[in-house]
Design a protein that fits this description.
The chain is α+β, with helices and mostly antiparallel strands. Helix content is 20%, strand content 26%. It is built from 5 helices and 16 strands. The strands form 5 sheets. Strands 8-7-10-13-12 form a 5-stranded antiparallel beta sheet, with no helix packed on it.
Length: 313
């Protein structure tokens, strides 16, 4: 908006500079009209910083060059993805660029709007029953917080991926919930006093001192300590295997509850767990037994919450 003309002019980046033409010496002004998503970050007059950009004095025979530098703003898009897909649960986010939190369901996005370049954070308030499995697109992450270093003109999409907190319980849980009003075994098809040999096929060589492992009960197996030999590996496997067996049975008798075993073929029924454990025991190979024990432990530790009240919460 030049004072020496009734018509405005327009410039793009790297356009040929605008030339006013010959002007009589005097005082003139020119204003830049703002553009959405851009900030005027500096003005120079003949190479020096010029703070009074709207007024300047033109001397006789003088040529004044004004350079306007604009910096484009950026945007941060926050996206929610869940496993399983399509759940209706709402997830709350706390962005540093706003005084108000926002909420997203699976597949939804939030657009920050134009932001000046800089460092921003956005945190998910992870709801009970869900695990934040990953954050992608951020420059760095810490727990449930993503940090974005936003450059001029950049659009960054940060995706928060959540997985439902699957109900599965550790050997210690089943050991400590075998009797009384919090007896969890009643929700499975197995009795704590059943011998291991009535469920699993256990080679005769696997013993603790002189007692065959098959003569221990399912509950007793949950206290196995393991050891450095084949019998020790069998103990470690059976401790994890009994818990996996009970988890599979629990979910078989209580359908509809989320269970990590449902996502892993071959682990989601008692029969499948028994077959896998039997095969590993029969291998008489320590590595084979410990590998399966690790896999079953991953399933048994699939949740980080549980409120032991019945009916199930």
């Amino acid at each position: 908006n030049p004072s020496w003309s009734e018509s405005n002019f327009y410039l793009d980046d790297d356009d040929t500079p605008y030339d006013s033409g010959w002007l009589v010496p005097g005082t003139y002004s020119v204003d830049e009209l703002g553009v959405t998503g851009w900030d005027l970050t500096s003005v120079t007059k003949n190479g020096s910083a010029f703070t009074d950009a709207t007024n300047f004095t033109l001397g006789a025979g003088e040529t004044i060059t004004l350079v306007y530098t604009n910096t484009q703003r950026g945007k941060i898009i926050v996206e929610k993805q869940t496993d399983p897909d399509g759940v209706a649960d709402s997830f709350e986010f706390d962005p540093s660029w706003s005084g108000s939190n926002f909420f997203l369901t699976d597949g939804q996005q939030n657009d920050s709007g134009w932001l000046v370049p800089g460092t921003y954070t956005v945190s998910e308030l992870v709801p009970t029953g869900w695990n934040l499995s990953s954050i992608t697109g951020a420059d760095s992450t810490s727990d449930s917080t993503a940090t974005v270093i936003l450059s001029p003109g950049e659009t960054v999409t940060v995706v928060f991926n959540n997985q439902i907190g699957y109900l599965a319980y550790t050997p210690g849980f089943w050991k400590n919930h075998a009797t009384g009003k919090h007896n969890a075994w009643q929700y499975t098809a197995f009795d704590k006093d059943t011998d291991l040999s009535d469920v699993f096929t256990i080679p005769a060589a696997y013993k603790i001192k002189n007692k065959w492992l098959g003569d221990y009960t399912l509950l007793g197996a949950l206290s196995f300590q393991g050891g450095g030999d084949l019998s020790g590996a069998a103990q470690i496997l059976l401790r994890a295997g009994v818990a996996a067996l009970l988890n599979a049975s629990f979910h078989e008798l209580n359908p509809g509850l989320p269970y990590l075993g449902d996502l892993a073929d071959d682990y989601d029924t008692p029969e499948e767990v028994i077959a896998l454990v039997n095969a590993a025991l029969a291998s008489e190979d320590r590595g084979t037994m410990l590998t399966l024990a690790d896999t079953l432990d991953d399933l048994n530790n699939a949740t980080d919450y549980f409120d032991w009240r019945w009916p199930l919460p």
